[in-house]
Amino acid sequence: MRICDLQSGIGRLQKETTHLQKRWAETKLHWDDQACREFESKYLSPLIPILQSTLAAIHEMVEVVDDAQKACSDDERDTFV
User: Fold this and answer.
1) pTM of the predicted model over 0.90
2) Is residue 34 part of a domain?
């Protein structure tokens, strides 16, 4: 039995990050002035590394949860043997 499903969250976050980047590239085709550059610099540029760090942390959490779940499952088997 799976305790939690972090993988689907990872997939969704990756998908939406890619979607954001594509939409921003499309937006910049029509909006290219100082306000655009300030918006990108202030909001979007810092966001991408944060999202990448978040994804890396969630990947690590998946491994920890999987290891814990396996350890608990092994402990249950040992108890009933």
Assistant:
1) no
2) yes
Q: What is the pLDDT of residues 17-65, one digit of tens each?
A: 999 999 999 999 999 999 999 999 999 999 999 999 999 999 999 999 9
Task: Please give the pLDDT value at position 78.
Answer: 60
Cβ of 21: how many Cβ atoms within 10 Å?
14
Distances (CA, A) of 70 to 3, 47, 56, 73, 79: 11, 34, 21, 5, 14
Q: What span, in angstroms and rounded, lies between the C-alpha atoms of 69 and 56?
A: 20
Alpha-helical (H) ranges within 1-81 are 6-30, 34-39, 45-80
Q: State how many domains the chain has.
A: 1
Residue ranges making up the domain that contains 38: 10-80
- The predicted structure's pLDDT at residue 42: 98
Residue 5 inside a domain? The answer is no
4 assigned to some structural domain: no
